[in-house]
């Protein structure tokens, strides 16, 4: 208990003893994980390791059967819904790029801006210079300035991934959860994405789930390997990839 | 609502539509009243009432389009809100009959005397005053929509599940309003209206005024819808329609948005019903029939959901066709045509007439970049540039 | 026959009083008495009636009823008496031998008003001993209700001769009822009577006991009071049983209507608003089958449903496949559009049937094995409802087995769980889609056969089931057949228990409101699938 209290206050994200099961299948099993403020963490693990379910738990989409999930050391995320958690400052990029396809790139970012999200606020919203400047800046960061008036649905896969990261930037959360950001990207795009994430990490806490080992290596951050809903190994990429149990899990028994 | 919001981004189509509605709203009653009967340009009174009905349907279609076209909520129970508005108006009209009823009771409407009511049920009080009835026209459907929506959206009932329970809702109301002891006239409903605000509802002048009011109602509804969908809230609604859970993760309280737009839409449907009742002269429980609500949805689909002009035009076109076909030798085939319309529109014309036309126009504009840039400079097709 | 019988019963009770006088001590041979009818003398006729009625001869009932109807012919010359049947054939009244024809000299035995009363009375007591079981039972029941003191003697007489158990019980009850109201019956007799009536334990027994008046001995009054409360509590139990049965019956109808939907909506996720029309098509198939049988092979009528079931399955199933191939397959992944298109389809199908068969109800008959009813304790169970329950469960079980053990069932589950994976494993997914939809539609058709037995067969038949069916499937949990089963029976029983409290319409509204509230609480139904798979 004592340990938890001291660590919990300092951690940006704190998961302890989390369990989730769907119809008897244990998707998450006694998962414990801590993310320090300003840290970037890469999460790896084979399919079905519980990576996405873990993100679902953090963002309030799935409620754990038991366990503690604390944000910023004080807020119990298990009691809140997605909207409230987003308002607290947790942003999420989905595994499958999810942007608002029938709206323009500009509008996608406008929607993501962390301004008044109430019904009244949006009904009587009038744009401000500060907002446009922020959108312009994000557009520049994600290299989509020229595409600002294109429909998001007409973007390429990689551009959509970036737009979604851009939406995270516009949202400006304290903690970013990024699920497979480089899936389907070319090598160049992958490299640029790594650079982008490193840039973002200067001001934000980031958790990245990724399969691509080159990408994870390029990020050069602490790696956590999940397997069957629990932490298998933690450390640098070299430490984790030389771990016998990790090798066993990845190469099969 | 600021004037800025109402006029913002009125594109050319919307402007033409509004001008046309306003023109018809003035010209049709005037031609009916001023020109001699039988003259070529004189619109007969029955046509004024008929077109008045179409205009009310157009308002209903707008209200459905607002939630379905822009927020992805397919309500199969909007006929219920329409009918509730109609009943509120009907109750006012019943109270206006006074001693001119068959039984001559100054307080109780005929059907209550017939059913041995000793006094007016509590929920009938106040309906002798027009302002109260008018308030109820908004309040009754609005309250039902708010309660229903609050429960449904909070529990994240979406998609077809929501459609099915809205259908169950209107079905339950249908059963309830059929009951005599429910106090709304049972299966006969309310009819034989005499006066509205002291004017004879049958009189040509009143009919003309009602038609004008319906057109005004359509214009106001259109402007409200337009203001909503072109605000940032409109973008949020579309975001919810296209990716609901993504919107949640961006921090939008989806249920509040849906509840707001659903309630607003129900109030609009109520107004449509209230304008409808004095023009057709009757309101009965069949208005709650699930089939009616679905039919209203198809008007929107035909015209083009997600386009306000399309929804309103769809209502008018389909109902005109209905009147045309059901009154001739083709009457037995009308249901075949209506059924085929449902199928063909969803299969072949998912964007509806106006939506398809818009898409075609956009495609042809892309082929001619010069024209496109010229149009963009006008600030007509790219409203955001104007800001 | 039945109207005749009830007419006789009516007169019977009124005239019991006269029986005491009508039964003379005189007892001669039956044949002599019969011959007296030929004397054309009112007092001889009266005597003859008495003797014949108390003779116990099996011809007594036909003779007296023929006398009443003026069909008893007497030949004054030969002193022979004949009974002319309603069918025109005649028998010798004394021997029962058929005769070729009644002599022309014979004329109908005449009656006056006094004799008519005797005839009525005699018929009454004869009905208590009528050879027809149903007639005896009814006679005993009506004595039980009227409990006329004068009926005591005939009832006791009949009781002594009665061999059938249920009639004997009814006569015992009748006797008890008479004794209970007879002022000069002993206290012991009355207490016994109360016990007998208490054992009967139905609504009529309750009415009788509540009606005994205040001039009873205290012990009898007390016994009656305790009997009343015990009957009341047992009746309450029976009424629950009755409600439960009605609920099961309604549940089976709901299940039958919803089971096809559980396949198309629950398993495939296709919103088929024309599902009700598949049910209707099944019902019309039954109608056509019965029409053909009626005009061509009337002997096969009892088998009409057995023939209609596979036909309805094939017809509705084929239409289902056609719909899937021509409309629904273009709309996968667009549930709201599917909903609208299939609604349009339902309009077309309804109107097509209306054009072909007319807008009015069509007559679909019950085969003999589906008509009638039997009593179980205090409740009555009709055969058609019982068969529908059995049939529904059979269809459900067959469907479950099909999904579990056949190749199509396996493919179906594979496709619905992971379409792309199934396709890559060589399953022809589009064929499976068509067949699955056909199966769901075919089952709806079968449902139509059963529903034609209890509902009006009209073009609107399906409309009345569509909302209920969706409620059942959604309530039970989509994608779970067992959920549909539990959902249907829960809703059926809840509806029937609410009905006596709230009335039929309000009960239905209450159920709809409860389901709406329930869906808000558990949007995915009673037996919901959980996990990430649901979202896909």
UniProtKB/TrEMBL annotation, chain A:
- ATP-binding recorded as keyword: yes
Q: Name one GO molecular function term.
A: ATP binding
Q: Report domain ABC transporter positions.
A: 13-253
- Top-level division of the source organism's lineage: Bacteria
List the Pfam families hit by this protein, alphabetically: ABC_tran, BCA_ABC_TP_C
Q: Which GO terms describe its cellular component?
A: plasma membrane
Which keywords accompany this UniProt record?
ATP-binding, Nucleotide-binding, Transport
Against InterPro entries, the record matches this protein to: AAA+_ATPase, ABC_AA/LPS_Transport, ABC_transporter-like_ATP-bd, ABC_transptr_urea_ATP-bd_UrtD, BCA_ABC_TP_C, P-loop_NTPase
Q: Enumerate the PROSITE patterns for this protein.
A: ABC_TRANSPORTER_2
Q: Does the keyword Endoplasmic reticulum apply?
A: no
What job does the chain carry out? Involved in beta-(1-->2)glucan export. Transmembrane domains (TMD) form a pore in the inner membrane and the ATP-binding domain (NBD) is responsible for energy generation.
Q: What NCBIfam families would the database entry show?
A: urea_trans_UrtD
- What name does this protein carry? Urea ABC transporter ATP-binding protein UrtD
Record organism: Bradyrhizobium rifense
TrEMBL record, chain B:
**Could you tell me the keywords of this UniProt record?**
Cell membrane, Membrane, Transmembrane, Transmembrane helix
Q: Which GO terms describe its molecular function?
A: branched-chain amino acid transmembrane transporter activity
Show the InterPro entries listed in the entry. Answer: ABC_transp_permease, ABC_transptr_urea_perm_UrtC, LivM-like
Protein known as: Urea ABC transporter permease subunit UrtC
Transmembrane annotation, as ranges: 14-35, 47-70, 76-94, 130-153, 160-178, 209-229, 256-276, 296-318, 330-349
Which Pfam family, any one, appears in the UniProt record?
BPD_transp_2
Where does this one sit in the cell?
Answer: Cell membrane
Organism, by scientific name, is: Bradyrhizobium rifense
Q: Which domain of life is it from?
A: Bacteria
CDD domains named among the record's database cross-references: TM_PBP1_LivM_like
Q: Does the keyword Transit peptide apply?
A: no
Q: Among the entry's GO cellular component annotations, what is one?
A: plasma membrane
In the bilayer, the protein is annotated as: Multi-pass membrane protein
UniProtKB/TrEMBL annotation, chain C:
Q: Which UniProt keywords apply?
A: Amino-acid transport, Cell membrane, Membrane, Signal, Transmembrane, Transmembrane helix, Transport
Give the residue spans that cross the bilayer: 244-271, 303-323, 335-353, 386-407, 428-450, 470-494, 501-519
Per the record, the GO terms for biological process are: amino acid transport
Query: What does UniProt give as GO cellular component?
Result: plasma membrane
**Signal sequence coordinates:** 1-27
Compartments where located: Cell membrane
Q: Which InterPro entries match?
A: ABC_transp_permease, ABC_UrtB_bac, BCAA_transport_permease
Keyword rRNA-binding carried by entry? no
- Gene behind the chain: urtB
Q: How does it sit in the membrane?
A: Multi-pass membrane protein
Q: Which family does it belong to?
A: Belongs to the binding-protein-dependent transport system permease family. LivHM subfamily.
User: GO molecular-function annotation terms?
Assistant: transmembrane transporter activity
Per the UniProt record, one Pfam family is BPD_transp_2
- List the source organism: Bradyrhizobium rifense
Q: Which domain of life is it from?
A: Bacteria
Q: What is this protein called?
A: Urea ABC transporter permease subunit UrtB
